[in-house]
Amino acid sequence: MSRKVVRSSKFRHVFGQGLKADQCYDDIRISQMTWDSNFCTVNPKFVAMIVDASGGGSFIVLPLSKTGRIDMSYPTVCGHTGPVLDIEFCPHNDNIIASGSEDCSVMIWEIPEGGLTSPLSEPVVKLEGHSKRVGILSWHPTAHNVLMTAGCDNVLILWNVARGQEMVRMDTVHTDLIYSACWNRDGSQILTACKDKTLRVLDPRKGTVITEKEKPHEGSRPVRALFVSDNKILSTGFSRMSERQVALWDPNRFGEPLTLQELDTSSGVLLPFFDPDTGIVFLCGKGDTSIRYFEITDEAPFVHYLSMYSGKESQKGMGYMPKRGLEVNKCEIARFYKLHDRKCEPVVMTVPRKSDLFQEDLYPNTIGPEPSVEADDWFDGKDGQPIMISLKDGIAAPTKSSEFKLNKTLLKSTTVCVGDQGNRGGVRKTVAHYSTIVLKYYQYYHPYHHSAISTMEIESLRNEVKQLREALEALTKTVNDLQPKQQ
């Protein structure tokens, strides 16, 4: 009598759970556009969703803590003249978000701390270079202020956002509509999937094709692809009989897939999300009610099915929380923000563990918010590896500001300028230190970062803030006393 052997994996019992109604975001008019983007982006501070708007395009940005019913009059970001097709938060600055629209433009926005209090219609940067609608945005994973955009004009553009300049234009590589475009782990390569049934690995600075694969999937419906572990490529598409498929490729041997699995006969495009820390890929189908997840390993068949989360309502889009925004003390390995017609529902993926201590095997060092190279240096040929952080003690504030650096002063500085030059340095340092303390307070009170700082530390922080406030007042008084003498 044969006995089936179950593959051993610490992620075999991962389960998904939708949060309760009071932890969802209700009464939001999610966009009805028929475009295969995520329609949602999220980071440890905010969740943003594309919404219906009359006479233009807009999206709503909410602090994570603002759950429940959202008032119809809640302010939106509404600078586009056509519907918004894609949005994405900057990985190096949680207050910066990019949007692409049918009006052929890309806009960069700065969201105030705490969220919007009035409609935002003036972007900090407007990028114009596409001749048709812009449906794909992707920030560089390690280089500061580098943005990739792809439009329906079959053109892929790399921007230096800090300068507001187009740096690389790839207008002869793709012969048809670009379905998806993404970076590899260090941003040294770009992977695109095109309507001409070809996967291409590109050199981003030269704008040339490194390698390509024709017909990764036989069907004519959209293909999505992304880099996974060891620079391998995972693609989702359709067979000739319209069955949904997932395949894993080695770009060094692009002839045959390492594995190709058929899933079902649904018609929704599968949106893949990959977690490099755990090797798990999540497949979310547009119009589906479920999220499938697989573990990618070095053993055949390489892509191992784990389980499936099934909800009650179909999903119109999906946001994926970066690892640094998860609750590690609850063994949470992923959190999705699932869009319904009038609602956004967080879905939490958890590894069941009895202990609430930090689980080092589930949380290796992960990619942090610090960029490792500036835009100018990256375009000059310098690559930078991701700067890793530990999640054991919570998320520390970035050690340096990740603001845009440009002549136009696109983003506000955290420093203040009062009085004479001799005293500005002291005031500047005081305010910079003060802002660091405020960030620590935010982490302490934020519902998803309650463990970021201990309760014992909060008293010393209060005393430090008090001393800083007194020092700031004294410095400001000194500067004000000096100003009449200079005149």
TrEMBL record:
Coiled coil: 451-478
InterPro entries in UniProt: Coronin, DUF1899, WD40/YVTN_repeat-like_dom_sf, WD40_repeat_CS, WD40_repeat_dom_sf, WD40_rpt
Residue stretches of each WD repeat: 77-119, 127-169
SUPFAM superfamilies per record: WD40 repeat-like
Repeat recorded as keyword: yes
Any one GO molecular-function label of the UniProt entry: actin filament binding
Keywords: Coiled coil, Repeat, WD repeat
Single biological process term from Gene Ontology: actin filament organization
Family statement: Belongs to the WD repeat coronin family.
Protein name: Coronin
